[in-house]
Amino acid sequence: MKTWIPDARNFAYLNWKQVDTLPRESTLLVLPTAAIEQHGHHLPLATDTLINNLLLGHALAKLPPEMHVYALPPVHYGKSNEHIGFPGTLSVSAATFMAVLRDLGASVASAGFRRLVLYNTHGGNTSLIDVMARDLRAEFNLRTFALHGSGGIAFEGLSAQERAYGFHANEVETAFLLASVPELVDRSEYTVNYIADIANPELLLPENAPATFAWLTRDIAPSGVLGDPRPATAENGARWRDAAATRLAAALEAMVRYPTKPAT
Ligand SMILES: [Zn+2]
């Protein structure tokens, strides 16, 4: 898999003696979690994993060199059973996903590290990330953190319709890939699918709402796209990538500085 993680921030490029010299209290390890799943007719299966690596790599490049922050190799497979029925989706169960995170947390803790952040870019993993951040905190006394997606940036230039109903293989995801791996975007295969119009809002939404329905993509999006990729540009993708990297870097710095002992 292509990577934008700076070599000096790539944990798996260290040898064990180098790992042994890292300061245990202040070093922050980042565990990326994403997915290999259908992203419509125009984006690759690895879209969420590529975006994770792209944004994290650019964020890590912004950190002061003396700050000890390293990216662990990503958990490529996620809980993607919302995309079952589309060839190419490779999903693991919630139990498997959580067991992998638990075992990796145990390994990090047994080496004496204290700070671990779960950086997730696949919506189907989000609730499990929240569970595991707390479980790893409780079981191993790790200081765990969760970091999601683009770090809450405003996505300047995105339409209100896309902001409300662009969920998957949408303008934002397409723009990120156009800015980084345009050869993996098939611009002749864009499809558009909205489950509702902002002028006629639905009460029941798939997520981020007080009333939701449990959704499978095949129920609501025959092509696998939830949104409109057509307005996506490499220029917007690069702007949003840089804005996200700035926000994610600030969050990582705050996690490095977060006290591991309660205030007295
Ligand atoms: Zn995606």
Explain this structure.
It is built from eight helices and four strands, in the order αβαβαβαβαααα. By secondary structure, it is α/β, with parallel strands linked by helices. A four-stranded parallel sheet has the order 2-1-3-4, sandwiched between helices. Helix 2 packs across helix 6 (171-180), helix 2 (47-61) packs across helix 8 and helix 6 packs across helix 8 (234-257). The radius of gyration is 19 Å and the shape is globular. 41% of the residues are buried. The mean pLDDT is 96. Bound molecules: zinc ion. Zinc ion is lined by residues 39, 47-48, 168, 173.
Write a concise synopsis of the structure shown.
Helix content is 36%, strand content 8%. It has helices at residues 16-20, 47-61, 94-110, 126-140, 160-165, 171-180, 217-220, 234-257; strands at residues 28-33, 69-71, 115-120, 143-148.
Main structural class: alpha/beta
Helix amount: 25-40%
Tell me about the largest β-sheet: 4 strands, parallel
Enumerate how many helices there are, as a single number: 8
Keywords for this entry:
264 residues; alpha/beta; 8 helices; 36% helix; globular; binds zinc ion
Detail the topology: elements first, then pairings.
Blueprint: H1 16-20, E1 28-33, H2 47-61, E2 69-71, H3 94-110, E3 115-120, H4 126-140, E4 143-148, H5 160-165, H6 171-180, H7 217-220, H8 234-257
Parallel strand pairs: 1-2, 1-3, 3-4
Helix pairs in contact: 2-6, 2-8, 3-4, 6-8
The structure holds zinc ion.
Zinc ion binds near residues 39, 47, 48, 168 and 173.
